[in-house]
Amino acid sequence: MLALSCATSAYPTHALRAKVPVRPSSRVSVTINNHLDHPFVPEVEKAVDSLYSEFRAVDNLVAQNTARVLKAFQNARVGSHHFGGCTGYGHEEAGGREALDQAFSEIFGAESAVVRSQFFSGTHAITCALFAFLRPGDELLAVVGAPYDTLEEVIGIRDSHGLGSLKDFGVEYREVPLAEDGGLDWHALKVALKPQTKCALIQRSCGYSWRRSLSVNEIGKAIKMIKLQNPNCLVMVDNCYGEFVENIEPPMVGADLIAGSLIKNPGGTIAPCGGYVAGREKWVKAAAARLSAPGLGVDCGSTPGDIMRAFFQGLFLSPQMVGEAIKGSYLVAEVMAAKGYKVQPLPRVLRHDTVQAVQLGSRELLLAFCEAVQRSSPVSSFTKPVAGSTPGYASEVGHNLRYLYNACKRFYLAKLHSNRTL
Length: 422
Hints:
Blueprint: E1 18-19, E2 31-32, H1 42-50, H2 52-75, H3 97-107, E3 112-116, H4 122-133, E4 139-142, H5 152-155, E5 172-175, H6 186-189, E6 197-203, H7 216-229, E7 234-238, E8 257-261, E9 275-279, H8 281-291, H9 305-338, E10 342-344, E11 357-359, H10 363-375, H11 399-402, H12 404-407
Parallel strand pairs: 4-5, 4-6, 6-7, 7-8
Antiparallel strand pairs: 1-2, 3-9, 8-9, 10-11
């Protein structure tokens, strides 16, 4: 079997040609080439060769994070019996729930963790964490500008129509605008906290915004600044798209809670659903009570065996999969910037999440790009993505266009000779 992987694309390649052997008397000679001599278009091949040192640094990061994951699996004594899952109320530890929580918490440097298929998305997990912290009369402060789109109705920035936003429950909201350079405004943050500020929300990734994502060290600096002003203020980090992009995680620098989705980085492209909350044990239990009910907390929740196995497998592979995504983001930035497009982060800038933004300049070009991604995909390459409304988003996005986040990182890794017009 011949596999083309971004993990080795930075290193010298050799032409591959397979010939089907035939008897001398045969009149038929079959050569199988399939364009393997030139798997990349020229501009991509040039970019791959130029990114050797960046790709090597990613390999080292993957090795460090994989070692941490392996040690956590060993310490949790993960065994094959944990892959069986459980049914009903989910009280049986043999189903692997406690072992998964233990391994996850150690990997992320947290006291405790709750990893569940019942979390619909990262937004759902973040919501449970926010409701664990906040009560009527409290204030939520967004530290890095406006939060992710899907949190707007959760907070009450957009009308939730009485369905139970934080605003509906009497929680106030403020945000610290971004600095002119698109980063965190440190001067504004120094005086931003008030006595009633109960929770500071830090979004690690840029998400859909055109801004710089935060490093874990920057998050740690912000946490110290917040705690100096108000020691009772709790810090919640939206960790989506940031897991395993560095060799440390927010709980290691003082975050009280982090939350995210298994559909993204920590699911290793294998977990089919789910999310997590991790951090200080008291607040993890409070978030779990929001997911389930007070009195049930972390000790309930069934997960079928096929899902539980995928959770363990995806978590173990996630450092490698995140490494592939980082390499893809370097490559996309390098090629698209060379063609004159604005990109964020800039080429060869150290990554702090798996998001690579490209300004295409028009709706038509965006749709064309998404269509090219779909055509180059191994599944549903024959379909055409169509923009439309998606629950939680005010802007026109569409289910297929959200796939762009992950698929665009592999856009130039296929044989794209037919897409050169882009």
